[in-house]
Fold this sequence. Notes:
Blueprint (H helix, E strand, L loop, with lengths): L11 H17 L33 E8 L11 H5 L3 H12 L9 E3 L5 E3 L17 E9 L6 H18 L14 E4 L10 H10 L1 H11 L15 E2 L1 H12 L15 E2 L1 H13 L13 H8 L1
Parallel strand pairs: 1-4, 1-5, 2-4
Antiparallel strand pairs: 2-3, 6-7
Helix pairs in contact: 1-3, 4-6
Amino acid sequence: MSRRDLIKTVSIGASATALSAAGALSLAGHASADDLIQSRDSWGFDGWAKPVPEVDRAERTTFVVHWQGPKRNWVKDIVAGDEIENGPGAPKQMHEIAKDDDGPGIEYNFVITQHGEIYEGRGWDLLAGAVEGFNTPAISAQVHIREGTGPSREALDALAALYRRANQVLAEARPGGGRILHALEVSSHHAHYDTECPGPDLLDWVKNTGPGLRAEADARITPPAFPGRDAFQIGHSDPSVRMLHLALVRACYTRHPDDASRPNDLFTEATRLNVRDFQLAQGWTGSGADGYPGPKTWDLLTR
Ligand SMILES: [Zn+2]
């Protein structure tokens, strides 16, 4: 639950209308191309109220778990309770609350119910709005439980399945984009912001189940093949350069700053000097430390 989710301004009348429309759609819209995740279309998503930017898959690092939280964060039950806790009413309600709070719409990447249903919110490639200051690296999954309710076995199984799927999907680059090189860290909203979210049971899950899941997922991700020396020329853009920049940040070779505020596709003199620092630190000299990545530099930085 994020601060923006506070629902003081919710218009009960408008939401009730939207939710009964969603209820009617749920019978017809249940099927999805994905056997694990029910698409936005399946729960009656009616579009974003504001544009939502995309995030390159290479910039995702963390799987963040949330809950719905204390009762004060809940809208008065405007449809039958079970429809809000489970079924398409769950993501639909989150969507209405976020729009009423002047946001683009549902703030989580995915919503998981006690029945183990997984609903797509912002999905794999859109910027979420659930973790203040940490949305670019985060895939945010809300387990749709209130304070005082523990997650069901089905919900926890769905959470683990979603985590595994996240690493499969994000390890595949989209055209012109990057991908993750390492499994996502399993984390909680609490680790990134002063909040009780996701509550004691899910915090235990993050702490006790998360590391094993991560190790399992990490072993399945193959390192990227060396893209060839042509990808690394001053003034030349290539998706592999973004991967290189992110690897340099991770390895802390960032002494030579660039104009760009975020890792991008452009190989610059600053990129070359940072690569050079890395090569010199390996004890390499001469053409081995010219700042242009060869296969060995690439493998060491991206493994
Ligand atoms: Zn949260």
